[in-house]
Structures are given as C-alpha cells and as structure tokens.
Amino acid sequence: LNSGHLNPSSHQKVLMKTGLILLIAGHLNFITGALVHGTVLRFVMTPRDAVTLQYLIANTASVMAALLTISCGIAALMLSRYLTPATLKWALLTLSACSSLGCLSCLLGLVVAMGLTLGSQGRALLAPCAVANTALAPVSRECPFDPTRVYSSTLSLWAVSLLLELMEIIFGIRCLLLTLDLLRL
C-alpha cells in the first residue's frame, strides 16, 4: 500500500462486491416501487390531490433512483474487470454521485410519504373506496382493491424501500470513494 491507496487487486475485489450489492439492491428497490405503484398508487392517483401526487412523485423517483443504482452497479462490475479505462472511471464517479444523491432525495421523499400516510391514517390511500366500514367489505365494486390490507402493505413496502435506499446510499458512496481513489483525486 503506497500513500493510502489500495493495490489494483484489492480494488477489483471491492469494486466487484460493491457492484453486486448495488445491482441486487437496485433491482429489489425497483421491484418494491413497482409493487407499490401496481397494487396501490395507480388506484388512488388524483391529479388535484397534493398527498397522492407526493406519493406518485416519491415512488417514481424511487424507481428512477433504483435504475441509476443498477447502472452504477453494472459500471462498478465492468470497472472491476477492466481497471485501466479512464472513461469508465469517470462514468462510475458520475453514476455513483448521481445515484447516491438520487437515493438520498428518494429516502427523504419516502419519509414524507410515510409521515403523511401515518398522519392521515391512510385516508388518501383509501379515498377511492366508497365503503363506510372497510373491514366489512374487503372487496366491493366501489373499491378497486382490498382496502383491509392496503394501509399496512403500502407502509411495509415503503419501509423496505427505505432500507434499500439507505443501503444504496452507503454502497454508492463507497463506490464513489473507491473511484476517487482510482482516479487519484
């Protein structure tokens, strides 16, 4: 080790592990966001409601950040194989910075969405249902989904997404620092 820099074989191993983790976390977060959108948000979206609009923005941003994380993971895996191309190093530096910042903003957006949901006890999620007592009519013509589980399911999926966003931030920053070291910056 010279002046605090890792040797090339250490960089390759760490980049490979980091890239794989980013790839897996990004895919899991993408799937989680798709589940939230497909099972809940497509039914509750009304353009004039600020709360559901915030849900849609936070969820869409989370899916887009997951795609950035997947791209960052692929670039890290490629760089772990071919350490010499400067273009690949700069691409990974850019992707890891964008991915980390994107995931941080999504994390904050999901915290706000969860806070709004908990604060309103899920009224925005259950707005499409015209049923007075959701426990008595699990699925009816007035409600396009099962209202008995939508509140807990959405919050659970958002909690999983929060953990994945946090993981993506940590490993995105790790990737950023490794790339800075490779570029000798």
Q: Tell me the count of domains.
A: 1
> Percent helix among the residues?
over 70%
Number of helices: 5
Give the helix/strand class.
mainly alpha
Cα(first) to Cα(last) distance is 17 Å
Structure summary, number of beta strands: 0
Q: What proportion strand?
A: under 5%
CATH topology heading: Four Helix Bundle (Hemerythrin (Met), subunit A)
Q: What is the second-level CATH architecture? A: Up-down Bundle
Task: Outline the low-pLDDT stretches.
Answer: 131-139
In angstroms, what is the radius of gyration?
Answer: 20 Å
Mean pLDDT equals 83
Which CATH C-level class is it? Answer: Mainly Alpha
General shape: elongated
Order of helices and strands: HHHHH
Major beta sheet summary: none
What does the model show?
The chain is mostly helical and 185 residues long. It has a single domain (8-122, 154-184), classed as Four Helix Bundle (Hemerythrin (Met), subunit A), CATH 1.20.120. The protein is built from 5 helices and no strands. The protein has helices spanning 8-44, 50-81, 86-120, 123-126, 147-182. Helix 1 packs antiparallel against helix 2 (50-81), helix 2 (50-81) packs antiparallel against helix 3 and helix 3 (86-120) runs antiparallel to helix 5 (147-182). The model is unreliable at 131-139 (pLDDT under 50). The chain crosses the membrane at residues 20-44, 56-79, 91-116, 155-180. Keywords: Membrane, Transmembrane, Transmembrane helix. It is a multi-pass membrane protein. It comes from Sakesphorus luctuosus.
